[in-house]
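Changelog note: in this version the structure field was regenerated for every chain. One regenerated record is shown below for reference.
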Amino acid sequence: MNTMMYHFNYFIILISGIFDSLAIKTKNKYGINFNNKHPSAISLYKNAGKDFLKALRKNDPKLHRHRSKYAYFINLIHEFRELLIHREMLDMQNFTPSMDEKKHIISAVEVNEKTINLIKQCGDKIREYDNYTEWGVFNYHNKYFISPFCFAKTATKTLIDFSNKYLELLGYCNFIDELQKKNNNDPFLKDLKIFETNRLGF
């Protein structure tokens, strides 16, 4: 449980770092300047990067619209990040939602209603035949919890979609597509195909 919690906490920090890196690349490409000189002001997170985002809208409206499409996702990750960096570490709990303790023990993170609302805004849906949603949300004794694995899996897919399109709009090429054009038998591509064929459903 401790190992899982460590990796989940680190996962949140890494995603927020990716957002920061994308913002810095954007600033460098367009030479964006604004009054706030603090490094944290260069951010895709509206609460921190309000002036930066205004400048982005002027320089590249299409890229700004793409960022706005994923605003709830960015806000969600930063909501977790604020808990990790400024207030407290996320706390994982083990509990048994059924009477059979040996067969049904769940490790989950308790979250507040604000976090749940942000997850809903990200397009969360009920999973058929499961008692939790695509983002791993479930309710137990009138409290909200998330499954770290399910959350991380869906958040990663969302991050990939967001980042790929963002970098494309910034003028970057798709690494996989370019590699296939150069050498479709590249060892990296072969490893990727093996992973896609044999991975265990995630």
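Spot check on this record: The beta strands are 92-95, 106-111, 137-140, 143-146. The longest helix spans residues 2-30.
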